[in-house]
Amino acid sequence: MKENQSMSILRTGPGTSVQDLGREGFGQYGIPVSGAMDRISMRWVNHLLQNPEEEAVLEISQPGLKIHFESPTTICIAGAKANLKLNDSPIKSEGLLSIKEGDELSFGSFILGARVYLGVKKGFKVPTLLNSKSTYPGITELGMLKKGDLLEYASIQEHPNPTWSRVKFDRNWMNSNTIEAYPGPEWKELSDTTKTEIQHTTFTISHLQNRMAFQLEELIPNSLSEMATAAVYPGTVQLTSGGKLIILMKDAQVTGGYPRILQLSEKSIAQLSQKSPYQQFSFKIKKALISQSLY
């Protein structure tokens, strides 16, 4: 038997991709960081599989994925709680799962959260480009996964010994409607009235959201002028001239001309990434200034 076998995509909704911790250090060339939107869930998957924490996983952001396994392996699922079936039998959407040759795994509706993460023991055998396996158009040959795509993985014949213990993935942090943020470089230029409004507004996530950015529906009065192009990062919250708030996510551009009023931490990015369009939240502004070395 070959050491590596393939997982085949029988069907998929939009937004299924291979992601790791991203490709940092290439912003000067205009290359986005990319990587998993929810690093909390990604790291949990690799922790249970005893993979390196940076090992690539599948990020699944829509129901409808169905995959066929050519060879035995062990997988782990975390992130959003979804209706899953293995060979048409319902299974739990978390923890380790032994896969046999010919098994088929399908992802139904999401019950809680917006992104599911699936990892395999020893990781997916996809090319590493610019120190990352994360898919991104123009950098990687593999883009968003589609029907017929194949992903190689290591064939694992030995499975973990069954035990009475069950590991539960804690999703309580997904339920919080408070997103922590730090003042960005232009926060100090806002009026006190505007700062207060931002801190007391319940914001609604627009349907205009993807791996590049989440747009919020509520308008914030803005008297700030647009800037010369400046550095931005995943988690940067921009305030447009029209008063829209745009939260940059993992595939965001590396520069922008809108005032950078807030900056989210990795935990806050993960929390936001597990929310769906029209869900609401409020910002909790931390008093400590974010390190200016980021910018």
Automatic annotation (TrEMBL):
<dbReference type="Pfam" id="PF02626">
    <property type="entry name" value="CT_A_B"/>
</dbReference>
<dbReference type="GO" id="GO:0016787">
    <property type="term" value="F:hydrolase activity"/>
</dbReference>
<feature type="domain" description="Carboxyltransferase">
    <location>
        <begin position="28"/>
        <end position="295"/>
    </location>
</feature>
<protein>
    <submittedName>
        <fullName>Biotin-dependent carboxylase uncharacterized domain-containing protein</fullName>
    </submittedName>
</protein>
<dbReference type="InterPro" id="IPR003778">
    <property type="entry name" value="CT_A_B"/>
</dbReference>
<keyword id="KW-0547">Nucleotide-binding</keyword>
<keyword id="KW-0067">ATP-binding</keyword>
<keyword id="KW-0378">Hydrolase</keyword>
<dbReference type="InterPro" id="IPR052708">
    <property type="entry name" value="PxpC"/>
</dbReference>
<dbReference type="GO" id="GO:0005524">
    <property type="term" value="F:ATP binding"/>
</dbReference>
<feature type="compositionally biased region" description="Polar residues">
    <location>
        <begin position="1"/>
        <end position="19"/>
    </location>
</feature>
<dbReference type="InterPro" id="IPR029000">
    <property type="entry name" value="Cyclophilin-like_dom_sf"/>
</dbReference>
<feature type="region of interest" description="Disordered">
    <location>
        <begin position="1"/>
        <end position="21"/>
    </location>
</feature>
